[in-house]
TrEMBL record, chains A, B:
Cofactor(s) listed: Zn(2+)
Positions of the Glucose dehydrogenase C-terminal domain: 143-352
tRNA processing recorded as keyword: no
Annotated catalysed reactions: D-glucose + NADP(+) = D-glucono-1,5-lactone + NADPH + H(+); D-glucose + NAD(+) = D-glucono-1,5-lactone + NADH + H(+)
Known role: Catalyzes the NAD(P)(+)-dependent oxidation of D-glucose to D-gluconate via gluconolactone. Can utilize both NAD(+) and NADP(+) as electron acceptor. Is involved in the degradation of glucose through a modified Entner-Doudoroff pathway.
Protein name as annotated: Glucose 1-dehydrogenase
Family: Belongs to the zinc-containing alcohol dehydrogenase family. Glucose 1-dehydrogenase subfamily.
Domain annotation Alcohol dehydrogenase-like N-terminal: ranges: 25-139
Disordered, as annotated region: 1-25
Length: 355, 355
């Protein structure tokens, strides 16, 4: 079968031929339908993130997949059932985090991530997985099933943000998303349609006309151009907000978030920047944290429950949004197009089998 | 009646004569028994924090009080009942934060604080208060009733810290308290006796023999001398901990806390430093937040529920601890001794009437 793999440092993925995998006991064989491409893939391709599986010389990419069960192999799944795989797996047997269904909270060394760290991904015509990591999705949603993983990331992030404010009566009315990539836009839509916030803002650094700004406008959200209004000035120019969702990976945003928050607000951080030293007014920021009961929460990965919520969320998203968000789905013969970036690209996927 | 007041910038409190207050409808008249002294009082005395009541030229100090109801004035309280007053009051009539019992979450302008910001404190022979802000305390605990307010601060801080970890299965085993003042020591005791953590650490910068280090030892906790082991090295020298409680007001500690935390840990900030710019490795700290699901939560003040929990906590503290912690209770004739600081001072109070 064909797979899309990357050699660390090679800078671009290639098509490779691999044997079709055989499911082990407890595993199902899945025929891959579509796999999304995101910023993490680009970091893995550039050699800035991720790790090869033991003994491998290249990594099969892909962690945002949807497929159809080809062989249930004695598991409770059914042939023909559509599924979305979760990403983390236990590295050796199992451990307490996986046993309690919280692999997303596992520390370093207690997990591998398919397509990212230490395990091959889903960008192949077939993949196998323990049935417990395959989340059923209605067939009608399968064409967009590659959006479930990124939405699940925000399901977790928002769950942790809201939990951090659960010791008091908190009714958020406003949110700011830092980053107008596909994850930022999906989250903006979630703030509008799931949390039903009154006012939302999305920060980017692009000029109109731009497909991501069009989506921001259409959602009824306010586009904030970071070149005109830096994060630290948003509270003055617009308003201090109840939630900040950081999806830029730009480290200064993590700390500027404290000023962008209204009293009792929470910032949730998702970016993974490189080391970078800079100066902050730490005394003032520390005081802001305390006197206004603010919180910052880091969030990575997601668990099966978040995938299940994400499927519900996906079902509730307006059709125009997913139509506009997915700017390209490319067959294997033109897989390279799915990895191209540019002003007209929002979200892409590779199609391994037609739906 | 006599009161202890401070003129902003005068640098030390003085005894003043004031008329005994008359309770308004809904208020009770309380005879003050004891009022504790803490770091906030010293900041108010130094002119670094706080604000005068409208039209006043000096501020009556004191926010950690215990008293006895002299005149219930038609409220549900009883004459002779021992009470601890909460600190925040609505500035004009009331507002939503007070109505829902969460004055601690009120933003600037929506509260005054007795003895600190915009309202006279409790360091007077009598004070009045709306009955709803007077929390009954058993008579046997009244001699230590001035510890209820500081304990309530930590009740809230710990509640918010735990809430921030409530979206997953979190069983903290270790905690680090930054600061070996009376609030730090009380919190250390709470971590030992209330949360029943296995391992606790307390950071200070004092040499043995020292009464606060004796208390740390006696609690079974580990003293960390910040001159030998800075906060950023604690995870290597000792261990990364599940909870960090910051009570130093030293701004670098807020950010070094991120490194002192174990994966999935939470740091709760209570200090109120002045503006101070310094360099941090913001990229690495941002990454730490995200990849290890860490959280930082600021916490200020406390509400009536926290005072009620604090009374339970106070009841459970060992006698040796409160004996060692309270290094001086001084009558009005020697009130100045209660404001002296030094290596042999941990916690002091002024006694306005014998118990």
């Amino acid at each position: 079968m064909q797979a899309i793999a990357v050699e660390p440092g090679a800078g671009e993925p290639t098509l490779v031929e691999k044997p079709r995998p055989e499911p082990a006991p407890g595993e199902a064989l899945v025929r891959t339908l579509r796999v999304g491409v995101d910023g993490t893939d680009h970091e893995v391709i550039a050699g800035n993130h991720g790790d090869l599986p033991a003994g491998a010389d290249r990594l099969v990419l892909g962690h945002e997949a949807v497929g159809v069960v080809e062989d249930p192999n004695g598991t409770a799944l059914e042939e023909g059932q559509h599924v979305v795989p979760t990403v983390r797996r236990p590295p050796n047997g199992t451990n307490e985090y996986f046993e309690r269904g919280e692999p997303d909270m596992a520390p370093d060394g207690e997990y591998v991530e398919r397509g990212i760290v230490g395990a091959h991904g889903f960008m192949a015509e077939y993949f196998t997985s323990p049935a417990e990591y395959l989340v059923p999705i209605p067939e009608r949603l399968a064409p967009l099933g590659f959006l479930v993983e990124p939405i699940s990331i925000s399901e977790k992030a928002i769950e942790h943000a809201v939990a951090s404010r659960s010791a008091f009566d908190w009714e958020p009315e406003s949110a700011l998303v830092l980053g107008n990539g596909s994850l930022g836009l999906l989250t903006l839509a979630m703030f509008e349609s799931v949390l039903e916030l009154d006012r939302t803002y999305c920060l980017g650094r692009r000029d109109r006309p731009d497909p991501s700004i069009d989506i921001i406008d259409e959602l009824g959200s306010t586009y904030v151009d970071s070149r005109e209004t830096p994060v630290s000035e948003i509270s003055e120019v617009h308003e201090a907000v109840d939630i900040v969702y950081e999806a830029t990976g730009y480290a200064k945003h993590a700390f500027e978030t404290i000023d962008a928050l209204a009293p009792n607000g929470v910032g949730v951080l998702l970016g993974v920047p490189e080391p970078w030293s800079f100066e902050i007014d730490g005394g003032r920021l520390h005081q802001e944290f305390v006197l206004h009961n603010k919180a910052l929460v880091g969030s990575v990965n997601s668990h099966r429950g978040h995938f299940e919520s994400a499927i519900d969320t996906l079902e509730g998203l307006p059709t125009w949004l997913t139509d506009d968000l997915v700017t390209g789905v490319y067959g294997l013969e033109e897989y390279q197009s799915a990895f191209e970036t540019g002003d007209d690209v929002v979200k892409t996927a590779v199609e391994f089998a037609s739906i």
